[in-house]
Specification:
The structure is a single chain. By secondary structure, the chain is of the alpha+beta class. The strands form two sheets. Strands 3, 4, 7, 8, 10 and 11 form a six-stranded antiparallel beta sheet that branches. Strands 1, 2, 5, 6 and 9 form a five-stranded antiparallel beta sheet that branches.
């Protein structure tokens, strides 16, 4: 009987920790392309859009300070495309972070990152990458995911620039 109670308690703890971990998923990622129906030699942007829960922030990929985990997209090499440059963050705002005692760049509400590339063929292209970052409010949680997507199935989605309230938010913080 003690063994059964011990197992039930263990299962309860495991289930509780999983529920707690699920509650701490403040950032949801989605992926799209800047151009659909691409052909060989076309330049396209692989777009990572992030929805950030109210009260949370996501650290950008572009700031000099050590400390928080910067947003990063590490792409697996492919013969089907080549990257034109680094991951670009669109409109993060500067923020002095008291925890890290440094000037950082963050996003609130939504974020967008773009990775410019040239595709070498039309049709199915598998894009594999590891994405990492950090979201914070009173606590910080790591963001880590591995993706394998067929670029030919992605559509264009740019809800960051489609939201005027987001741009007013950026303007307020950029002054």
């Amino acid at each position: 009987m003690k063994v059964i109670k011990s197992w039930l308690f263990f299962i309860f703890l495991l289930d509780s920790s999983c529920a707690f971990a699920q509650a701490l998923t403040p950032i949801t990622l989605s992926y799209s392309l800047s151009k659909t129906g691409y052909k060989a030699a076309d330049t396209v942007d692989f777009i990572i859009n992030a929805k950030i829960k109210k009260g949370w922030c996501l650290y950008s990929s572009e700031f000099a300070a050590d400390g928080p985990i910067k947003f990063e997209c590490v792409v697996e090499k492919s013969n089907a495309f080549f990257l034109l440059g680094p991951l670009l963050a669109y409109n993060p705002f500067a923020h002095y972070d008291e925890v890290w005692e440094a000037e950082v760049k963050i996003f609130e509400e939504v974020a967008q990152f773009r990775l410019p590339m040239v595709v070498k063929k039309s049709g199915k292209i598998i894009f594999r990458a590891r994405i990492e970052g950090q979201g914070c409010n009173e606590v910080c949680v790591p963001l880590s995911t591995t993706i394998a997507l067929d670029l030919s199935t992605l559509t264009y989605s740019d809800y960051v620039s489609a939201s005027p309230s987001v741009y007013s938010h950026y303007e307020k913080h950029s002054k």
